[in-house]
Amino acid sequence: MANESRPCPCDIGDRFDYGGRGQEVQVEHIKAYVCKPSASTDRAVIVIHDIFGWQLPNTRYIADMLATNGYIAICPDFFVGQEAWKPSNDWGTFNEWLKTRNAGKIDKEADVVLKYLRDQCGAKKIGVIGFCWGGAAVQHLMLKNLHLKTGVSVYGVIRHFDDKSNLLHPTFFIFGEKDDVIPLEQVTLLEQKLKQNCKVDYEVKIYPGQTHGFVHRKREDINPQDKPYIEEGRKDMINWLNKYL
């Protein structure tokens, strides 16, 4: 398995020992991590964090990887100063914690970040990727936000939006076959609804044997057999962005 026996949602044991190559900035009322490529570009990607927040080294690693591939990458604090989840927290309180952090109520922050990318970074083509909680947020934005070009939802918690599938922009969905958080029945239902209602390009891909968190968890050293799937997920993500940005 790609991940810990009790998947995520994700685990402190998977944290990268990683400092990041970018810098922290203040974007109106939001703190954000920004990493820029060496060459000038008008392409940018908003990276939406999981429940562990915008400072998680794993997520910053992905932002840096996007910059290495030629994108301005920004990971804002979509919890807007509220505490991120800690693995030491009591999981019995998780649902109560989640009530004040709704992945479907990030429109104000998204607009602020889009304005920053356009006005301060010269971005003209902007996409979004997100993990877990952030993957659900991506699906929300793909249903609502006219200013984004494309999205990648990585093991997004689709049950939050399982009645909505009329996407506005091309969207790529990444899932793990063994994800206890997102059962394959939910993925099948998503595919059915997309087939019925979606008029833009989309793809749903399930990665064999992988559990929740595999794309942005550093498990290569622990389970080498999963390395090809982790690399494939990251490559697929970049390829999708390259195609639509």
UniProtKB/TrEMBL annotation:
Q: Which domain of life is it from?
A: Eukaryota
Q: Key word Secreted present in the record?
A: no
Asked if Cytoplasm is a keyword of the record, the answer is yes
Query: Sorted alphabetically, which Pfam families does this protein's record hold?
Result: DLH
Q: Which residues form the Dienelactone hydrolase domain?
A: 30-245
Instruction: Name the UniProt key words of this record, in alphabetical order.
Output: Cytoplasm
The UniProt entry, under InterPro entries, shows: AB_hydrolase_fold, CMBL, Dienelactn_hydro
A GO MF label: hydrolase activity
Q: Where does the record place it?
A: Cytoplasm, Cytosol
Q: One Gene Ontology cellular component annotation?
A: cytosol
Sequence similarity: Belongs to the dienelactone hydrolase family.
> What is the official name of this protein in its record?
Carboxymethylenebutenolidase homolog
